[in-house]
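Example for tutorial group B:
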């Protein structure tokens, strides 16, 4: 029999916000983000990704839970919600998270760590989807993005696991991480309850022979159909 793990957000807010109200919420809630390690032993790690259907009128969210360290897929959920928030760079979490929360409600296995397709604090208001979801669920979360949203960086060394700091002025907001030799780096940032060094460690621990960590690869396949 399927036993669901009901996820109750630790915090809640309205979702029927204007872009201006959403930006104000980000500015307020970023003070809740914990940038240091507050995570225990991790047996299950989850990838979170979002796609769209029906000409983007439907948001399709996927959560893939992998056992660690085997990285075997042990649970997953896909949920669909009407897309209610407009596409606004920097506000994608308001467009995507309602469906993600629905997917979490369908899980049988609760992860102790989230790897989100998107930004953590490497965000203009330091509150990307990994921070937003991590704070809502009070779960450790890491932003794993394919592209830079903000900040500047130098040359990334060529070796696997090498990285350079992503900076906004004097502030280090993330890492530009080479997960494989000869491929484009990823943009890693702390989301919630995880330090940057720990975020880098976990991304590499979940990455095998591909550019993306296995968490992201599984979630992306599910979100993309």
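The residue assignment follows.
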């Amino acid at each position: 029999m399927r036993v669901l793990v009901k996820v109750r957000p630790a915090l809640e807010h309205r979702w029927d916000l204007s872009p201006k109200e959403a930006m104000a919420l980000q500015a307020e809630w970023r003070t809740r983000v914990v940038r240091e390690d507050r995570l225990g032993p991790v047996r299950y790690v989850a990838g979170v990704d979002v796609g769209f259907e029906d000409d983007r009128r439907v948001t399709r969210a996927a959560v893939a839970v992998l056992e660690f360290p085997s990285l075997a897929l042990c649970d997953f959920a896909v949920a669909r919600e009407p897309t209610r928030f407009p596409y606004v760079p920097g506000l994608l979490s308001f467009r995507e998270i309602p469906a993600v929360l629905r997917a979490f409600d369908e899980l049988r296995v609760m992860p102790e760590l989230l790897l989100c397709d998107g930004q953590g604090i490497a965000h203009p208001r330091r509150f990307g989807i990994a921070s937003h979801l991590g704070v809502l669920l009070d779960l450790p979360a890491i932003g794993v993005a394919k592209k830079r949203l903000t900040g500047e960086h130098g040359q990334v060394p060529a070796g696997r696991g090498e990285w350079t700091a992503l900076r906004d002025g004097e502030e280090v907001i993330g890492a530009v991480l080479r997960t494989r030799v000869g491929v484009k780096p990823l943009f890693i940032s702390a989301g919630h309850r995880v330090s940057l060094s720990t975020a880098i460690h976990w991304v590499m621990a979940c990455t095998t022979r591909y550019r993306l960590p296995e968490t992201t690869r599984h979630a992306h396949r599910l979100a993309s159909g």
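Residues 92-104 form the longest helix (13 residues). Compare this with the pattern of hydrophobic and polar residues in the output above.
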